[in-house]
Each structure stands twice: as structure tokens, then as C-alpha cells.
Amino acid sequence: MATNRREFLQKVGLGGAGLGMAAAIPLKGITNPDKHINSFDEADQFLRIGDDIANAETIYGKIRGYELNGIYTFLGVSYGADTTGKNRFMPPQRPEPWSDVKHTIWWGNSAPQIMDNRYANVHYSFADHWNYDDVSEDCLKLNVWTPGIADGKKRPVLVWLHGGGFTNGNAIEQDGYHGENLSKQGDIVFVSINHRLGPMGFTDLSGVGGEKYKASGNVGMLDIVAALDWVKENISNFGGDPDNLTIIGQSGGGSKVTATLAMPIAKGKVQKAVALSGSMLKGIDPNYSKKLGEYVMKEAGLTPATLDKLQEVPWRTYLDISYRALEKMREESTGSSRTGFAPVADGAYLPSGEFFSGPDSDGSDIPLMICTTFHEWNPTRANPELEAINFQGVIEQIKPRFGNQSESIVNAYQANFPEKKPAEIWSMILSNRLSAVNTATFKSKQNAPVYMAWFGWEPNLYSGRMRAFHCIDICFWFANTDRMYTHTGGGSRPRKLSEKMSDALLAFMRTGNPNNPQLPDWPAFTVENGETMVLNDRCGVENDPDRSARLSLSSI
Q1: CA distance 325 to 310
Q2: Of 146, 395, 436, 518, which is most buried, counting CB atoms within 10 Å of its CB?
Q3: Residue 258 phi, psi (nearest 5)
């Protein structure tokens, strides 16, 4: 079947590609070029950009974006000041107001991170289709997609927290993160943010720097809170409801979601939350984080008296210093089980104990939806030779992690999933739901419900080896299965499941309950039954579908 140009551009996410072509059309022989241009049927034009289009007010000044497929789009909007120099390691500062119109038509800078060999593996580069632009400390930027500007409506607001652990990623790292389609489908406002990462966002210098650096171990999380403040103060100008905000994140972003819920400073800023393929229930031990901060100081050749010089070092140099310090600490000392640069349980910004530990602790009144995939860390995705592994081979492969319990774990998974072949069992062991169920268990004891999902849909790509891998479900939730065709193959099959999942997300944003006519009844999770919506070509609820397999890991 033939595909017209407009359909093609929309499918691949290149709606503005025609702009460059228009300049190449010769005007020779046209006596009145303006008249000729104005004769086009505007109803057929799906990109609109100009002085009187997509203008919006913020409390800092006016911004101008563009309209694409009926959705107003604003990219790279400042929600915080540049974090270089004196602002490095400090809580985010508000941006300086501006008097002219700011043009917000391109993505904001990615936060400082190691970009070396990011595209080294051609298979991962193809399948995940990484999107990176400039990397800079001037990275406190967000993107907004909305059906209306200052139109008096109060649309639900979704705020996307990207993955990449706490060290990598950005708000548009994959095409599946794009907010246009969900905004249009659900009449909602979609926001995605960049924030400080890794050593820039989570070096705890409070032990060597004192009061000035008391927040340094958590400034990356404080950036997220600052972005939520921006939404609270500005989103009504974009047709959004500041009192109906859902945060959603995947992988490291899922951990950012649960950490945000637990932060006292975030109280009242979030009404619903979704954690995909990641969560955390505890921050880093401050004894560990302060020790790491000391190693960083020494690696830089500084003392407490000269510590401020760390604010002057080029960001890439500082990252190299920090990661060398981390390696030295790992070689020379023992730390907590969670090591590296990540949120710190300082007792001020992040609780010192486990999150959701009591019925009335922070986040207790916020409904939570959790989803993981069947084969998060599928080892055969880009390695066809591993497909032939047998069960004894799986036992040997997991021994470095599980030791003498490896055989009993493989046997437990075989018994729970007798139809699965060895490569699939291997992947499911590596991708176990243990931490997700632990999070649901804690949260279910609070005042708001938890809903659990398990994504098992597999694309017909790479001879079936991709399976339900880490990140694949994102584009289904955001109605982007055609845009993220390198994960799904595109077409009607993934689109049908995406319609069900995106409608569930939209229902959850509006009511705190994902139930909708597209899916079977989806009960809240209970510890007794472990109710889980299995998402596939056919969807349905199963009670604790991996219980016996998962219990084999509970003592690890």
C-alpha cells in the first residue's frame, strides 16, 4: 500500500522535515510569490511556526514554540539557572527573568555525563536510536506538549523523569519519550525534564565542605523538585491543572519517582506516580557518601580549605576526577550495598530510613502504578550465539551473582515457567520482579492504592531475540509505537496494545485508577494475592504469576 509523504513523516517523527525542502523550490516565473504561497490549503499544513503562533507566558518571561499536528510544543524551557561556577553542587537557583521572547524550539542541553563510546554498539544504537545534543551544565531545561495555551482548561499534567540510572540520559534520549501523541490522544499536558546527573548531581561534599555543601549529595533530586515547582507556577498558562500532576519514570527514572515521593520538600507537588522498571526504597548511607566525597576531594589534590576550587574545574575534568575517586574507594574500602553517585539518605532532603515505612509517611496519599518487563536485561538481544544455551549453561552464567544457589534458582524458574526455554529462563532470572514487588508491598500498606503490571509483549525483530527488554514498554504507554519503530516494528499489532496501555495511563492520571474499557478489570495490588495485570497481545490479571520463582531469590 502506498504511503503519502505526510504519513511517512509523521511515522518517523520528522514532521518538520519539509521546512528545508521548501527553500529549494524555484520561484522563477511566479510573478507574485506571496500570492502563490497563500493559495495553499492551510488545512493540509500540519506544522505552524511564526511570530503569532505558540506564544506562552511564564513567570520569567514569554516563550515561543511551534504547533505540530495540533499540539503546541515548547522545547528547552529554562526552569533553573545555569549550574556552572558558584552554582555547582548548590541547590538549583531560579532563572533570571527575560524581557524579549525566548524561542523554545529545540531540546535543552543534556546534563554532563560521559559520552565516550555512547554509539559504539551498532545494534543498541539502531534499536534504541539514542538522541543526544549538546552536553552542558546549563541543563535545567524542560519540554512541554499541550493541546491549548491559556485556554482556561485544567488538563491533567504528566512529568517524565528519564532513565539512565542516576548518571546518564536525557529527556528525549529515545524517540519513544516524545510527548506529542499522548498529549493529543488524552487531552493532557506532557512535560519532560533534564536535571543534574552523576557526580554533578550527587557528590556529597558535606563531610569535607560543611554547611555550604550540605545539599550537594542531593542537588540532582532538588532539580526535579524545582521542575515540579515550575509546573506548579506556570502550567495553567499551558492549559494544565497544577493540582493534578503525575510523575512517571523508567529505570533510574522509576527510582527518581519513588525517591521524589519520599522527599518531604516534594509534599503536595505530586498527586499520582508511575514507576516503570525501576524503584528505590532507600537512599545511600551518608557515611558512605561523605567518604566518597572525601575521596573526590583528595583525588583533586584539594583540602577543605581549598574545596571551592572544585567549582572552577571543567565539567569533564571533574567527572574524570570523581570516577577515579570512586574506583579507588571501591579498591580500598567497603561501603554500603548501593554505591556510586546517587541520592543520599541525609535525613533532611531524603529520609534516613526506608521509604513508605509507615501508613502516614511521605507519599502515603499518592496512588502508585508499577510495571516491569519480562526480559529487562535479556543477554541474547544482540548475541545470537547465546540463544543455544542449555540449562546447565544458565546455571554457570549466573554463578558469579548467585553462587551456590544458582541451580536451585534455575530449577525454581523452570518449575514456575515450564514452557520457557533456557535463554528465556536466564533472562527472567536476571530481570526478576523482586524489587518491584518489594516496593508494591511497602506502598500497599499506606493510604493510597498500588497497581502492578508486567509487560510481556515481544517484537518480531532480530529473529525474535529482542523479547520484552528493558525500555520497550515506554513507547506503548506514550502512544509512540509507530514513532519508536526500532523497538516495535511499527504497525497495528503493537498499536493495539499501546491503545490499551496509554488509555490506562490516562485514566490513572485523571482518577488514580487505571481501569478503563480497553482492559479487563484491574484490581489494586495486595500482599496476599499479588494482583498483576499481564500486558501482551491478550491482557489479563494473574495473582502473583512468578511467586515460586521469585521466592527462590528472596534470601539472596
Answers
A1: 14
A2: 146
A3: -70, -35
